[in-house]
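Hi all, long-time lurker, first post. I run a small reading group and we've been trying to get comfortable going from sequence to structure in the token notation. Rather than ask abstract questions, I figured I'd post a concrete chain and ask someone more experienced to write out its structure so we can walk through it together at our next meeting. Sequence below, copied exactly:
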Amino acid sequence: MKVYKFVIFDWDGTLMDSAAKIAHCMQLAAKRCDVGVPTFEQVGQIIGISLRPAIQTLFQITDDTLTDKLVEAYKTVFLQQDQTPSPLFPGVHDLLTALGDDNRILAVATGKARRGLERAWDNTQTRAYFTYSRTADDAESKPSPDMILQLLAEAKVSPEEAVMVGDTTFDMQMARDAGIDRIGVSYGVHGQVHLERFAPVALVHSVYELERFLLGAASSQQQ
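-- Answer (accepted) --
Happy to help. Here is the structure in token form:
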């Protein structure tokens, strides 16, 4: 088993259980803008992409004015109206602590805006775990490999030393195209069968299983 020096995490659906809030806010934004209200499943298919292209894909629109209106409506609802909690998945703090104790370098690659990631870090008290991050404000949207390539360059880490952990095909494709290994988590928004298409080195079904996989390799090498 391989020990990865540099572990890059997606945020929504991988570390934070936020799909329900994202879907509800998108539905409310659609109502505010008088467009067809998407289902939870439809919203789930675009979670992970940066907000603007996600909205254009979800609603099948190219009109900039309507896109801007939906983006602003979503942001307003997310910050001011919807009170759906977005907790971390069980075991995330233990996972991040254990990886830090094992001298792994941790990063986030997310479709959230920088402000949104900073807010999530503060709300969950996880900022200190991460040395590097890339958001929708810093790089091209997933599935472009831009986020990962930037992170590798900044951290001065080779592709062979890195792994991407994510719950969507966008994460898997981004990692594949950046030339790094990938771990799919099935408890997020994209199903196991879709993640398997991108040949992940592992497909895990809980944060605890993810921790065992990432740290099991280190444990076996120490024995």
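A couple of things your group might point at:
The domain at 6-17+87-222 is CATH 3.40.50.1000 (Rossmann fold).
Residues 218-223 have pLDDT under 50 and may be disordered.
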